[in-house]
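can u do me a favor
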């Protein structure tokens, strides 16, 4: 544990940021997973498209907040769109 006043404050700040970022990171993971399962089920293309759109919106938000790296968000969005395009081409 830190002893200096500034180090204690830094610890409090980093802890607050960690818990705050965790919310957005978990939300992104959940939405990307829902979009993937919706795409892989191959049923309703419109529902899959909407799930992907929601996941992409949250990925952009997490990247703009600095929760995840912008390239990480871009990579995940690219993979989602590639899977969605394959589903749309198949149906």
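np, heres the sequence
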């Amino acid at each position: 544990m830190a002893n200096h006043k500034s180090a204690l404050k830094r610890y409090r700040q980093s802890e607050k940021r960690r818990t705050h970022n965790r919310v957005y990171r978990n939300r992104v993971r959940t939405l990307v997973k829902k979009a993937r399962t919706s795409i892989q089920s191959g049923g309703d293309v419109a529902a899959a498209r909407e799930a992907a759109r929601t996941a992409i919106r949250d990925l952009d938000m997490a990247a703009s907040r600095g929760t995840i790296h912008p390239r990480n968000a871009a990579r995940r969005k690219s993979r989602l769109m590639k899977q969605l395009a394959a589903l749309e081409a198949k149906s």
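The chain has one domain: 5-90. hope that helps!!
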